[in-house]
From TrEMBL:
Protein name listed in UniProt: C1q domain-containing protein
Localization terms from the record: Secreted
Lineage: superkingdom: Eukaryota
Record SMART domains: C1Q
Pfam short name (any one): C1q
InterPro entries: C1q_dom, Cerebellin_Synaptic_Org, Tumour_necrosis_fac-like_dom
NAD recorded as keyword: no
Chain intervals with Polar residues compositional bias: 1-20
Region described as Disordered: spans on this chain: 1-27
Signal as UniProt keyword: yes
PANTHER family hit by this protein: C1Q DOMAIN-CONTAINING PROTEIN, CEREBELLIN-RELATED
Signal peptide: none
Domain C1q: 32-169
Amino acid sequence: MLKQSLKSCQSGCNESSKSNTETRERRIVPQGQESQVAFHAHLSNNVQNLGIHQAIHFDKVLLNEGNGYSVHAGEFVAPVSGLYVFAWTILSGDRTCMKYDVVKNSAVLAYYISDAADHDDWAVSSGTAVTRMNSGDRVWIRVSDMLFCSHIVYGAGFGTSSFAGYLLH
């Protein structure tokens, strides 16, 4: 069988061959409507006066395939179970900082700080998380604590804070 496969490749494997078509059909990315889950949102303005554990509501939605992201709640709710990837960028301006958590249901997936508190310059923190989610599980970004930070999230100026995610498998 191996000799036959090698022989067929030597005679010219190409994208239209039967074996490549079968390989494309067996890819790990699921086919169909449920595979179309993705969102990307960012802030259109700076957000001030955030309280402890308050969600950041990314108000400018650029993509919301599967309708999982809610501007009003500031959270993503998984429409189908699967393996999801989330990415974010949080900006802080001159002499400000922002401590924040990325939360899945009630568990903190990641803890970050965007820190420009002691200098005149912008600070940016970004991250990525991969997690298995059941249908109905929620992920959001919230203020972590208030220690030493002003908790202003920048959405205008030299960039914007953003939150994105998609169903991997």
